[in-house]
Amino acid sequence: MRARFRRLARASLTKPGTRHAAALLAGAAGVLAYSPFDFYPLKFLGLALLIHLWLGAETTRSAFLSGYCYGLGLFGAGVSWVYISLSRFGGMAPVLAGIATLGFCAILALFPGLVGALQHRIRAVPALRAACLIPALWAMMEWTRSWFLTGFPWLGAGYAAIDTPLAGYAALAGVHALSLLLAACAGLILCVLLGHARMASLVALILIFGIGGALRAIEWTRPAGTPMRAELLQGNIDQDLKFDPARYAETLASYAALADRSRAQLIVFPETALPRFLDLVDPAYLEQLAAVGRRNGGDLLLGAPTRRGAREYYNSVLSLGASRSQIYSKSHLVPLGEFIPPGFGWILNVLSVPLADFSRGDPGQRPLHVGGQRVALNICYEDVFGSEIMRQLPEATLLVNVSNVAWFGDSLAPAQHLQMARMRAIETGRMYLTAANSGITAAIDTRGRVLGRLPQFTRGSLEVEAPGYAGATPYVRIGDWGAIGAALLMLCAVALAGRRRPGQRR
Q1: Active-site residue numbers?
Q2: How far is the C-alpha of 488 from the C-alpha of 140, rounded, in Å?
Q3: What is the pTM of this model?
Q4: Which of 249, 263, 331 is nearest to 292 (CA)?
């Protein structure tokens, strides 16, 4: 059986076209490891196949193309929802939207392609290459992707491990550590199958999963204060109608009715629930909402655009109720969706996106004191950046996200977004509440478990008990440097081993 597996493995490396097609399929199939499918074994197996292809690559170009094809499959299948926002809601011509989406995925695919090229250029024996070199480069690549050109960390490998014992490492060093370990486990699995340091690889696998399982049992933070009742509103306003002036009064009445029925201390509205600049909203309406908060002995968090003068406006959340009024403004904006980079002003002639050029909020904003808690707010896309969420910690006792992923229709995006929110809860040791216009509105505990959620594309509210938490996980204290430091140490180990075998390339 073992000899047959090796023959089949070698046969898969004979033709470049076969190798690249296998990589493309492995990347596309890997999307099933993420929410809403959550079949995580496919991520381990897909990366193991990619590493196998890299080990057998004869040239740097071939290694690059295998990685590039894997990335093209992963992002082409996993973030295809970009087409929906560009075409259906952005007003871009379907052909142009398709070209733009494909181009976007093609750029993202460069990252795994570069990993393939780099690993081929570095001297290492197969076992070290599979279990140390490639995982370290993979983690560094994902970390770079999280900040390069403002960052796009979507579909990081670590998210696929959120329901495995590896999730125990998230509170230690964040999602990039999970990416590092998942890739290492994929390499170790391949070593076991191919017979490269089989026993050592098997022991390493058992240790990684065993330690991760033990870490999951640790309570890094502790409850603080009296738990409050929170209610998350889901207005389900159709994106096609959201900014229609004829629908404005109906939208306000809908949200006022949802809020008035609530008796919660904290009521959370979705992102831009009020589709009009705050200074243009009837003060009587705002007072009506504030009265609901005071009646309940708490506050409301209301999403609305705000502005300073004619050219400076923000994607904001305003608090109303028993506490003094406070504002949080989004600081990490989506390129071409919320701000226009220099030289891209022409894009406004192609896209029909309301409020497409927001100003950036202060990155140093502090938690809002509302509902008896210190709430760290983030708006939609901001919660995919763990290093930015922790800026308000450990001061904050509760995490709250407001979103409007209706921009992506009935696609994979909302479920993928919720999966990333679950990771933020584990990393920070804080309960996480997210209110989304069309879903997924949910409450998540400190272990990343979804305590309750509303069905998508329905109007309603979710009431939950929301305790605050104090203390700090190791990740809150050291950030992404724990994962990056581990990756650099692995690269150093490979370099030292390579010096001891100066004549051996693979």
Answers
A1: 271, 330, 380
A2: 9
A3: 0.92
A4: 263
